[in-house]
Each structure stands twice: as structure tokens, then as C-alpha cells.
Write a structure and sequence with these properties.
This protein has 19 helices and 20 strands. With 482 residues, the protein is of the alpha/beta class. A five-stranded parallel sheet has the order 2-1-3-6-7, sandwiched between helices. A five-stranded parallel sheet has the order 9-12-15-8-16. The chain starts with a strand and ends in a 10-residue tail after the last helix.
């Protein structure tokens, strides 16, 4: 089956022929061009999914042709072909919007990998755009934004949950990842959209008031119950009840929620009759529910009832490629909200945003952009108006090293992948592997604010492995440090 269409633009006929044969063998439809004029003509007739473009052409500059391609087809991915000596030209091409470049001489395998990577990214972006458009068609609030593979999966799950009218949905994710936005999206794009969506934060309501808040009460049910009051489940009839932070719900209330899920009925506080509950229950938490089940702090039967349709949300740290899109989106929204005319952020500020680890996730990013927009008087936001946490983090973690020697005022754990850690400074007296491991665990816990799940992710291990090693080194292993 013919796959994507590729246009190869190179005046060296042997190179163009070799690329075409290799790509055709891989299943692509390929056409070649040797001049700028021929390339523009084939762009219109072929409508390629990807262009491979030589920088030097007999009738023009490949960079100028790149600009024209981008003007005519804004979303068309372009891979530049350049001699190894043309590093400056390659960098210029990337700044003009090229997706990647390959240097001459090149191996066919390297070319194939670059082509597959670029087309895969294009596919994710197109799928994300399609799903975004569908999911946002009726929403006027802040929306879920992103085209990373992780967000594509989130959009897919939202659509499945909405289309199937799943009666229970569980949303898992750290604070600030957008759990409420996901819940609202599921409701908005479902058959229940015209019925109420009612949110209740299980961590914000005292235990003695939570039952009344959820199920309502009869007159005289308790001292201050002067009249009958409908609870959330009754008010949301036909719609959705969003139980945010369900991990903080008391065990006694968990049993009552389980009964509602199983029987689709509830009883007002002080009442004698059961009331039918035609609602979808969406629950969300930032906590490790399986761990809480093991520690007897969350009912296993409720967890299994909730964990049917599950939407896990990625942290912003895991989808940093979405940061530029999120920044532009927040700027557009805040411009409308405050009547500003900000056009974007400086390259230095964007670099700081990309380097930061974002413990507060998307919510923290939005707050950072809002703060900078309130302080900046120009149309382009500079890094001067970022808060100190972000700027200091960039300064500490931009060195790709773990410092442990004399002269360091503390140790810094690189948040990049392990290949980015190029140096470990060992003190003169030496250090054992156990000491180094203990130091890394302590440092990661410090960076994560004691959150074991996040610290384990920094160290590329499971939370259970981290807890085992914490016990091995005599470090405090608090059950509450999820």
C-alpha cells in the first residue's frame, strides 16, 4: 500500500535517484526535482506530505525556497539536505522552520529514520488537531492543548468516555495537569452535555458535612437542617458529578459512594426512601490509589469500580514539546481576558520555560505567563519577568552535571535524561557507590518536595523500588509522601 508522498529536491541526480529508490522501497510515493522552478511546480501537483530539500540549487538558494514552501504550505514538514561544511546554513534552515536536516555524505538508514520520525510527528499533530477540534467545538473555557503523543492518547480517551456514556471514569494526574478540564470535556462532548455538571472537592469539605453535600438532607436531620435540601447527586440528575480529589474522601463516605455506583440509588441524610441516581460519576485524584489500597486507606472494591475507564494525565515535564504551543495559547487567552496585545515571548524566556521542571504542571506555566504579561510593557515578553524559581532552576540545571566535590554548595540532580549527565565530580577522599546512590535519592526527594512518585520518576525507577532503597539507606519512608 502506498504511504505518504515525498518530494526530493536535489540537483545531484545520483543523490536524488538514490533517495527516491530507498524511500520507494520503504513504501513511499516519491518524486524528484532538480531546480527551484521544478520543485514549486511539483509542490502544486504532488501535494507532498514531506519535502527533502537541498540547500544549494542551480537556479536559487534552498533557504529562499524553504521560505516559499512555508508560505504556501505552512504545515508542510521540510528536511534540509546539506554538506557537513554547511552547518551555519543548516541552523538557519531550522530557524526558518525546517523540521530536521541531514548532512552529506549520509547513510540511507539515517535518512529513513529521520523521515519516519518527521512523518510520525506530523501524524500526531494532525490527529491531535482533529481530536482537539472535535472536543472543543462547544467549549468556551480554557482548554486542553497539545499535540504530543501523550496528549493524543488523552484526547482519544476523552472521546471514548464521552461517546460510550461510561458511568464511571477515573482521572489520574498530578496537581495542575488539567483533571477538571478533562472531566468537563468528557461531559461537554457526551449525550449528557445539556444536563448539569457539578464538581465537589472531597478534600475541601469537612467529613461531617460531606454526606449532606453529596446526598442532601431532610428537614430536622441535624440541628441546623431547617428545611429539606437536595444534594449534588440529586441536583446533577441526568448529568455528571465530578468528585475531585477522591483519594482524600473518608473511608466511611467511600462505602456510600460505592453503593451509589452499584445500585444507582442513594438516600438523603435523615431520609427513609431511596432516590434513583441517573448520573455519570467522574472521580479524580493526584494520589497513588493502588498504594493507598495496599495501605488500607482506600477501599479496594471502590477502586476496582472506578478503575474501568481510566484517563492518566502526563505531567508537563513529560511533554515539554507542548510548552511552545501552550505558551502561545495562554497568551491569546490572556490577551482577550485583559485586553493586552502581547505577541509572544523572547527566545531566552522560552529556553527558561523549556529547561524548568514544572512541579506545578500546566497550571504553574499559565500562572507564570500571566504574571509576566502583567509586568511586561512590550509586545514580546522577556525572561526578566519570570519568577526567581524558574530563572534559578535554569541557572542550576543548565550544566548537565551532578556536583559533589569541594566548592559546591549543594548537589544538583540533572532533570535531563541520563545521557545528558556528562560529569560527576568525586571528592578527593573518594565516595562509594552506596554513598552516591543515597545522595542521589536524597537529592531527588529534595527536588520533588518529598513526593516519592515524582522522585522515583527523576531516578527512572518505580516508586516501590525507591521505597525499598530508602529503607536500605535508613531514610524516612513516610506513607503520606505519595
Amino acid at each position: 500500500m502506498v504511504r505518504d508522498k515525498i518530494l526530493v529536491v536535489d540537483d545531484e541526480s545520483l543523490i536524488a535517484w538514490s533517495l527516491a529508490k530507498m524511500l520507494e522501497k520503504a513504501g513511499f510515493r516519491v518524486e524528484t526535482a532538480g531546480t527551484c522552478v521544478e520543485a514549486l511546480a511539483k509542490l502544486r501537483t504532488l501535494e507532498p506530505d514531506l519535502v527533502m530539500l537541498d540547500i544549494w540549487l542551480p537556479d536559487g538558494n534552498g533557504l529562499d525556497l524553504l521560505k516559499e514552501f512555508r508560505r504556501l504550505c505552512h504545515d508542510l514538514p521540510i528536511v534540509m539536505i546539506t554538506a557537513s561544511a554547511d552547518a551555519d546554513a543548516a541552523l538557519a534552515a531550522l530557524k526558518l522552520g525546517a523540521e530536521d536536516f541531514i548532512g552529506k555524505p549520509f547513510s540511507m538508514e539515517a535518512v529513513r529514520l529521520v523521515v519516519e520520525k518527521v512523518l510520525k510527528k506530523k501524524g500526531f499533530q494532525e490527529e491531535a488537531t482533529s481530536l482537539n477540534n472535535e472536543l472543543r467545538r462547544r467549549s468556551e473555557q480554557y482548554k486542553l492543548v497539545g499535540s504530543s503523543p501523550e496528549m493524543v492518547e488523552v484526547f482519544k480517551m476523552i472521546r471514548v468516555c464521552a461517546d460510550t456514556d461510561a458511568k464511571t471514569v477515573l482521572i489520574l494526574g498530578e496537581s495542575g495537569t488539567g483533571k477538571e478540564l478533562v472531566a468537563r470535556a468528557i461531559h461537554t462532548h457526551s449525550a449528557r452535555a445539556d444536563a448539569p455538571f457539578i464538581e465537589i472537592n472531597c478534600a475541601a469539605i469537612p467529613e461531617n458535612l460531606l454526606e449532606s453535600e453529596l446526598f442532601g438532607h431532610e428537614k430536622g436531620a441535624y440541628t441546623d437542617a431547617a428545611k429539606r435540601r437536595k444534594g449534588v447527586f440529586e441536583q446533577a440528575e441526568g448529568g455528571t458529578v465530578f468528585l475531585d480529589e477522591i483519594g482524600d474522601m473518608p473511608l466511611s463516605m467511600q462505602a456510600k459512594i460505592l453503593k451509589v455506583i452499584e445500585t444507582r440509588r442513594f438516600r438523603r441524610l435523615g431520609g427513609e426512601d431511596d432516590i434513583a441516581a441517573d448520573v455519570r460519576i467522574i472521580a479524580a485524584t493526584h494520589q497513588d490509589l493502588p498504594g493507598m489500597v495496599r495501605e488500607k486507606r482506600f477501599r479496594s472494591d471502590l477502586y476496582f469500580r472506578l478503575n474501568v475507564m481510566t484517563v492518566p494525565l502526563p505531567t508537563l515535564f513529560r511533554r515539554k514539546e507542548d510548552i511552545p504551543v501552550l505558551v502561545n495559547y495562554f497568551i491569546r487567552c490572556l490577551n482577550e481576558e485583559y485586553g493586552n496585545n502581547v505577541e509572544g515571548v523572547s527566545p531566552e524566556m522560552l529556553q527558561h520555560l523549556l529547561e524548568y521542571n514544572w512541579p506545578g504542571n500546566v497550571r504553574e506555566l499559565r500562572n507564570a505567563i500571566e504574571r509576566a504579561m502583567m509586568l511586561e510593557q512590550k509586545k514580546v515578553i522577556s525572561s526578566a519577568y519570570l519568577n526567581n524559581d524558574i530563572k534559578q532552576y535554569a541557572g542550576l540545571h543548565g550544566k548537565d552535571a551532578i556536583g559533589m566535590g569541594a566548592g559546591n554548595n549543594g548537589s544538583v540532580l540533572s532533570m535531563d535524561y541520563a545521557p545528558g549527565v556528562r560529569q560527576i565530580n568525586v571528592p578527593p577522599e573518594g565516595i562509594s557507590i552506596d554513598e552516591l546512590e543515597k545522595h542521589l535519592i536524597m537529592t531527588s526527594l529534595e527536588i520533588a518536595g518529598g513526593n516519592q512518585t515524582r522522585a522515583a520518576r527523576f531516578l527512572k525507577m518505580s516508586r516501590d523500588t525507591l521505597r525499598y532503597r530508602m529503607k536500605k539507606f535508613g531514610l524516612v519512608c513516610s506513607a503520606s509522601s505519595q
